[in-house]
Amino acid sequence: MITSRQLLLAIxxxxxxxxxxxxxxxxxxxxxxxxxxxxxxxxxxxxVEATQMGIDxxxxxxxxxxxxxxxxxxGSSELDEPRLTLYTEEGPPWVASADNGWVSEDGSExxxxxxxxxxxxxxxxxxxxxxxxxxxQVRPREEYAETDLPVRLTSGSDWVRSVGLRAWLGEPLRIxxxxxxxxxxxxxxxxxx
Length: 193
Hints:
By secondary structure, the protein is mainly beta. It is built from one helix and twelve strands, in the order αββββββββββββ. The model has no long low-confidence stretch (mean pLDDT 85).
């Protein structure tokens, strides 16, 4: 048997449900959320080659890319198959390449993605170095690069693997490994006969 209290509760709940339904009908219909605007470039340039000079007239950076797409919203550009050469004060230049990239409006930041390789050839005072990863953020003006992804660093027959890297590419070269690291160094005794 239903008690008077349960009956009263059922009537109140039914009344609240009817009032909610009636109130919902009084409200204006909801507008659908705005569809995000498609990101479209305002211009596309094929076979781009750009050189940036320092105040001393020396070449500091040289960028070559298969395709550049410029976006007016934030002034950034997307790059296909970019290749950036960074000339440092001392030592051989660094050459970075990737499948694609993104560059900020003012050129202060370059993000490389897909098969990223950054190389420096050996000279009389430095060893050859190669860094390989899937994504790398480069700040060319600061001669700085970093990633939080797995990275492999090789120099001759020596190698280091790590997760995450910060590198100051000027002289002296400094590299900070961020995560778990494995390495192999081949030590040669110059005094051995």
